Amino acid sequence: MSDQLMAEGVTAISYHLTPPFYSQVSKRSSVFHAGYPQDIISTYLDPDFMESDPIPDHVMSIGHVMTWKQVIADQKLTEKHQNFLKVSIEKGFIDGVAVPLFGPQSRNSYFSMNFGKAISSEDEAVVRPLIGLAQSCHRRICAIINQAGESLPVLSEREGEVLYWISRGKSNGDMATILAISEATIDTYIRRLFKKLNVHDRISAVIVGLSSSLIKLR
Predict the structure, then answer these.
(1) Cα separation values, 126 from 33, 133, 135, Å
(2) Cα dist. 100→4, 56, 58, 176, 197 in Å?
(3) Taking a C-beta distance cutoff of 8 angstroms, is the pair 13, 2 a contact?
(4) N or C: lower Cβ tally within 10 Å for the chain?
(5) What are the phi and psi torsion angles at 38 (to 5°)?
(6) 119-168 pLDDT per residue, tens
(7) Where are the alpha helices (DSSP H) in 10-92?
(8) Distances (CA, A) of 28 to 1, 23, 153, 189, 200
């Protein structure tokens, strides 16, 4: 999905994979980023900083798409919110699109798109189909999570390490080098992971791992 969005002018995205009934900025939320520099990701994923983000929970409560500036103007900001926005401006944030995504059994998620510029009504024709794409991908993620079931799979320490590096986009060769084992052994661990997580591909394995708190993208 991220490649399709980037092709349409989106410079960066974030997606909050959050358990039902939890805040989108809680410590239980796993956040996937694409397109942001590592220093911004590290800053945002600090739990105290993320919890001061005034945008995700507010747009979820409103229930429809808004720009970041609209969300900020629509609420009374606390001192923590204002400090969050100050840091965001210092890091070059201008405006973006805040999208509430709704799924079955209250499995709802916050999604945002950064275009690197102020958003206006002239951008609606570009933004609208991208929102539809995000909602479609969210429904697929919900289906994968539901298919995996409610029981937490038990992973060995090495399986957990392999799953983590899969979530970081590493190839079998990369993981073999990092973990100092053969590619054939990595392949064996991946097959075991797929069986335990009841999935058939890497993306689904990462989704189940995130939703089960087996891994966190940091």
Answers:
(1) 21, 12, 15
(2) 19, 8, 10, 39, 27
(3) yes
(4) C
(5) -60, -35
(6) 988 888 889 999 999 999 999 888 887 776 556 678 899 999 999 899 88
(7) 38-44, 47-50, 56-62, 68-73, 79-90
(8) 24, 8, 18, 27, 26
Residue 162 CB partners (closer than 8 Å, separation 6+): 175, 179, 186, 189, 190, 193
- Going 17 to 84 to 52 to 216, the CA torsion angle's sign is positive
What is the value of pTM for the model shown? 0.76
Which SS3 state, helix, strand or coil, does residue 125 take? helix
Cα–Cα dist 105/16, whole Å: 16
Mean pLDDT for all residues in the chain: 89
> In this structure, what token pair is assigned to residue 66?
């808004």
